[in-house]
Write a structure and sequence with these properties.
heterodimer, A: 161 residues, alpha+beta, three-stranded antiparallel sheet, 3 helices, 5 strands, 41% helix, 22% strand, B: 141 residues, 17% strand
């Protein structure tokens, strides 16, 4: 009898450990996926050069166009709908929240160091650029893992020859 | 005799319990490798030098993935753009502002077939694991 009890106990423990490990592995994969999506969104936003100012020889980012591009690329790469809610085929379950979107334009002196105490983020830009912070919640598969959420930070500069 | 039977049964059960989820790691690793390859292709393809992902780059990518044990003939590449323009033509690179889309697909093989034992239906033969993304092209003529 005691062997039966012992085996049931071991089965429960092993499965919990397996579940924990699979969930941790997936979480690690998804934090990278989220970071890539944020980086690509920031990159797309930073490429929105203001044409009117460019004709005058000023390299500057068109802020409204940048925000639209960032939202579009974030939506595509994370499979979200217009409100930031995940689509039915998306891996994510909770809303991806854009916590911060900042365009650093030609009115600053470069190299410019952007600092954010709240999110503990610091980046130095040599050209006009964009800083983007998105809050993502990991969709846990099993209850074994404690809840995980990230503030993913990305930045990009306007690329020009 | 009964003792022996119980021992064999328990030994089998424990071995299966310990090792069956290990197969999931093959899946996790393959997915990660596909995603890494997709990121690399997008990074290169969307850079200011190229603005496209052509057949040659796809062939190189197949060769790289084959080193990790993928079957190159079963890898499927899907390249597209946000404007609908073809994104695999070196003569017509995507200009800055146009998004380059890439999806790499690979079959699951029989990796999850063992799950039938605990009542989970494995994905069908037509289903694929996929990795991809969209990145804005930096190419300026």
């Amino acid at each position: 009898m005691h062997k039966l009890v012992f085996s049931v106990l071991m089965i429960v423990i092993w499965w919990m450990l397996h579940a924990l490990q699979v969930d941790e592995e997936l979480a690690l994969g998804s934090v990278h996926e989220g970071k890539r999506a944020v980086d690509r969104a920031a990159h797309a936003a930073a490429q929105q050069a203001d044409r009117a100012k460019l004709e005058m020889g000023i390299v500057s980012i068109d802020a409204p166009a940048a925000e639209t591009a960032a939202a579009e690329y974030l939506r595509y790469n994370l499979r979200l709908d217009a409100d930031g809610m995940p689509l039915p085929d998306s891996f994510w379950r909770e809303r991806a929240e854009v916590r911060l979107f900042r365009v650093i334009n030609e009115n600053n002196e470069f190299p410019y160091t952007y600092r954010n105490e709240q999110y503990d983020y610091e980046v130095t830009l040599n050209r006009p650029g964009v800083v983007l912070i998105v809050h993502l919640v990991y969709p846990r598969l099993f209850g074994v893992l404690s809840p995980v959420a990230w503030d993913l930070k990305g930045s990009a500069e306007l690329v020009y020859p | 005799m009964k003792q022996l039977l119980v021992f064999v049964l328990f030994a089998g059960l424990f071995c299966w319990l310990m090792f069956s989820p290990v197969y999931k790691h093959v899946l996790v690793i393959r997915q990660a490798l596909l995603q890494q390859e997709a990121d690399y292709l997008l990074e290169i393809g969307a850079s200011g030098r190229y603005g496209y992902i052509d057949a040659g780059m796809q062939a190189d990518s197949r060769a790289r993935l084959a080193q990790h044990g993928f079957d190159p003939s079963r890898l499927e590449y899907e390249v597209g753009s946000t404007t609908g323009a073809e994104a695999d033509n070196p003569a017509l690179p995507l200009p800055r502002g146009v998004g380059l889309k890439l999806v790499i697909r690979y079959p699951y093989d029989n990796l999850l077939t063992i799950d039938r034992l605990i009542g989970l239906e494995p994905p069908g033969p037509e289903q694929r694991m996929a990795a991809g993304g969209m990145k804005m092209s930096e190419y300026a003529p």
